[in-house]
């Protein structure tokens, strides 16, 4: 087996049915009264601060780090927050505060606006944030479905463990264990599409076997933390990804513990036309998406500010478009 490896850039290079993945790791200082960093923002290009300075970034935020209101159409976002918190607000009236292992799965479908802000809730100590956002494409038939917003709470996400390794299963089935159901119109909602999203942790010297995938599935791992690994004897260095064959693959951790993300799925196999936050099949569909957003704002913005954050004392919760509320 000739193993194809590649560097992890920003964003990470994924394969169909995935569009890309970003990994945010920010070591924020203590929070201030506005839930932003209790530190000077002087010298940062606020509104477009993607340079790691003093261990953290403001992204598009001016007071609180994060991504104020912006639109999406034609795909899904899977947001895994392993450390810290994310405040979600959207044009459907849905809202959430999630983190510490929670996952939000949003089907943008025909169009939605949302904001993703990172409130710094600890006013006494550091506020580390680790977040993965995966863009999963939608097939042509589902590009314009009704938007859907779902929470996979940390308590509901299964863990599969073996000697020296643990896997957190966000999507798919591994070793007879199945993750919570994805949104109904997702490519991942069809078991035959063989979609797997999982975070794998290995102790030094541990061995983990990635089981055989379905015929035609695209499979990649992304080694984002710790030391190197070998995949069927081929070295993969920290900060690299590897494209895997369909057969069972043995991963062996080196002398330092490590973590990697595993993405798998059968390709949709349709043309992809992308323009910023819109992903369709044909260029003319992108033009229509931009025009419809200009005219409708995908339902408008019902929140006081584009960078809306929830009160600091609020715990983990989700408020759904139908008015139902879940508090954790």
Automatic annotation (TrEMBL):
Gene3D superfamilies: Jelly Rolls (2.60.120.10). Residues 62-136 form the Pirin N-terminal domain. It holds the Pfam family Pirin. Residues 200-299 form the Pirin C-terminal domain. PANTHER family: PIRIN, PIRIN-RELATED. Belongs to the pirin family. This is Pirin family protein.
């Amino acid at each position: 087996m000739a193993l194809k490896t590649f560097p992890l850039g920003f964003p990470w290079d994924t394969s169909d049915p995935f569009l890309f993945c970003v990994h945010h790791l920010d070591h924020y200082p203590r929070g201030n009264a506005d839930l932003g960093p209790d530190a000077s923002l002087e010298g940062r290009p606020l509104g477009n601060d993607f340079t790691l300075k003093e261990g953290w970034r403001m992204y598009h935020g001016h007071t609180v780090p994060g991504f104020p209101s912006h639109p999406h159409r034609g795909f899904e976002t899977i947001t895994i927050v392993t450390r810290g918190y994310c405040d979600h607000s959207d044009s459907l009236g849905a809202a959430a505060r999630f983190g510490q292992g929670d996952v939000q799965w949003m089907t943008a479908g025909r169009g939605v606006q949302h904001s993703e802000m990172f409130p710094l809730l600890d006013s006494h100590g550091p506020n580390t944030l680790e977040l993965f956002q995966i863009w999963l494409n939608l097939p042509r038939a589902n590009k314009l479905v009704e938007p859907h917003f779902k929470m996979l709470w940390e308590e509901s996400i299964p863990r599969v463990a073996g000697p020296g390794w643990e896997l957190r299963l966000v999507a798919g089935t591994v070793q007879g264990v199945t993750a919570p159901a994805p949104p109904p119109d997702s490519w991942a909602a069809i078991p035959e599409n063989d979609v797997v999203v999982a975070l794998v942790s290995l102790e030094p010297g541990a061995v983990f076997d990635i089981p055989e995938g379905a015929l035609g599935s695209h499979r990649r791992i992304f080694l984002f933390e710790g030391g190197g690994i070998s995949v069927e004897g081929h070295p993969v260095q920290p900060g690299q990804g590897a494209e895997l064959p369909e057969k069972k693959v043995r991963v062996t951790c080196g002398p330092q513990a490590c973590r990697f993300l595993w993405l798998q799925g059968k390709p949709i196999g349709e043309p992809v036309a992308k323009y910023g936050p819109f992903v369709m099949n044909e260029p003319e569909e992108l033009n229509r998406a931009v025009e419809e957003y200009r005219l409708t704002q995908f339902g408008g913005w019902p929140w006081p500010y584009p960078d809306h954050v929830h009160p600091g004392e609020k715990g983990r919760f989700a408020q759904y478009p139908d008015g139902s509320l879940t508090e954790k």
